[in-house]
Predict the structure.
Amino acid sequence: MKAIILLGTLKRTGLSNTEVLCEFLARRMKKSGIETEIIRLVDHQIPPGTSSDMGPGDDWPMILEQLLDSPIIILATPIWWNNQSSLIQRVIERLDERHDQLLAGKPSGLEGKVGGIVITGDSDGAQTVIGNLCNFFNAVGLLIPPFATLSVLWEGQAKGKKTRRAELMKKYDADYAATADKMIHALLEWAPK
């Protein structure tokens, strides 16, 4: 079984709370036999647009190919002003052509795959983002199993905090292992075989 995590951190360098949470989830997924790849969107050239290929220098076609080959797709985002990061919004915009294909009576290539959501933040907004992303998943044919979200809203992740990676992992292991495992179980149960 394979999973792709599209990581929407805006941090090019330094510690990203969302990235550490994705690493935590990927480690637990590996224990369940899921090969997981984390794609840091900030490291790729993904120009704005609503088509699958915006021409030379566009990394999105390569990322899209990986999504189409993976039965599990997870969007991971920090909360910014009560919304998903601009990079996760960019993913939604770039997948718009897949939605257009559905409207034209053609397959999107995402039908039957399962989706999950990972969120970090230090304020309200997780429920809004989960609702937005689930609506998008539904619109392009991705199945959202019950319990397929992992959100951590902890003051140790607040903007400007200098929480170390080891401290984040300790918190996740202590307080979020059961939630992560429940998410993994749901993804495996509903993923195409």
